[in-house]
Amino acid sequence: MSRNWPESVGIRAIEVLFPSQYVDQTELEQFDGASAGKYTIGLGQSKMGFCSDREDVNSLCLTVVARLLERHHIKHTEIGRLEVGTETIVDKSKSVKSVLMQLFAASGNTDIEGIDTTNACYGGTAALFNAINWIESSSWDGRYALAVCADIAVYAKGAARPTGGAGAIAMLVGPHAPLQLERGLRATHMEHAYDFYKPDLSSEYPTVDGKLSIQCYLSALDTCYRLYRQKFEKQQPQQSQLGLQNFDAIIFHTPFCKLVQKSVGRLSFNDFLLCSEQERAEKFAGLERFNAATLEGSYFDRDVEKAFLTQSAELFANKTKKSLLLANQVGNMYTPSVYSGLVSLLISEPASQLVGKRIGVFSYGSGLAASMYSIKVTQDASVFEKFVSKLDYVLPLLNAREKVAPEQFSELMEVREKNNHAAPYTPTGSISALFPGTYYLKDVDALHRRSYERTPSNISNGVH
């Protein structure tokens, strides 16, 4: 039985939000007594955005959704599904999605499907997939879907703290999209692991097994990439070559930038193991000593890592490095992380050079859930250039942020830690430091009910 699929379903608009304040990683190294370069070179991080107690996951989502609807002139009645991917939990029952319904109250639109989805940094990808699936299903009523990702990544004092960050992404999903998710090219790997988890619901801080987390990430990358290659080969058997050359750009979930560079090398190692002897001789000359190497035995093999980091250096520079702009300047956003990579790529590459190209995407969430899929950029140059032009605010906002000294940053983190889930509570963080049009936490009453207001902007209103 044939089916009339909606055409070119994917991302029609994208909005990114990051904190208005940041701490410099070089200064944080000095403050923490860490060796010079540990955060900046070892992790590949320059700045880390953070939220005071004036912002929580609800306020981040309120801001990013309101901005997307306003800036792209989308009517509230045009939204038929809205799902939030987050691991920043402020309530064990009430979803962030339910808080966002306040934005739709005036329009009278209560017919919006979707709630929250949670699995570490993967929740945003699950929300996006569900949005795509809804539009391609019998449930679709012709309206748009919104996939929202938001998190505040904070760690206790110590080695993990510089890998924090915060942010939100909202994606408008529908047919005839400038960024189309390629149907049938989606590979997923899920398994049970305690690499990173949050068992203490009274704390924002996770429990992390750093070494296991990296192994889980790379193992999931291996599996997803190989499954993706198999599906690509089956769908497009006319392709004479398989592997990384079929991607014009590759973006990754980014806990820290250095891991992404290693991940590109890891994918190149996969290509090495999967290709024929003749192809090895042509493409991987000088690496014959690794012919007997295996995936399972190489996760912490420094020789393999170094060799394929070097071998893939040009590939990384050409296809991935530009996608790390926001990760380097803001830090790990958790669920929005990989999509901040998409935004970074779009604003760092001339739009004309991405028209008709394929972008590989690897999304990972600890615990664990991972997927690799691909996005095809529209062939219509004028449509795509208009789409990208809507992101012209990103660099000016990034440069307009306020730098905070590590001492003050540490004090603000202590305030968050001390008052996590406090009620009643009135936040003390600066409102004037927030960007225009930002929703912020006004107060929490004795029954833990949260009230929000908005800093002045072109369209300003309070939400209670």
TrEMBL record:
Gene3D superfamilies (alphabetical): 3.40.47.10
Domain Hydroxymethylglutaryl-coenzyme A synthase C-terminal: 180-454
Keywords for the protein's UniProt record, in alphabetical order: Acyltransferase, Lipid biosynthesis, Lipid metabolism, Steroid biosynthesis, Steroid metabolism, Sterol biosynthesis, Sterol metabolism, Transferase
BP term (GO), one: farnesyl diphosphate biosynthetic process, mevalonate pathway
Keyword Transferase: yes
UniProt cross-references to SUPFAM superfamilies, sorted A to Z: Thiolase-like
Pathway(s) it belongs to: Metabolic intermediate biosynthesis; (R)-mevalonate biosynthesis; (R)-mevalonate from acetyl-CoA: step 2/3
Annotated binding of CoA, by residue: 213, 258, 262
Residues annotated as catalytic: 87, 121, 253
EC annotation from Swiss-Prot or TrEMBL: 2.3.3.10
Protein name per its UniProtKB record: Hydroxymethylglutaryl-CoA synthase
Originating organism: Drosophila virilis (Fruit fly)
Gene encoding the protein: Dvir\GJ15089
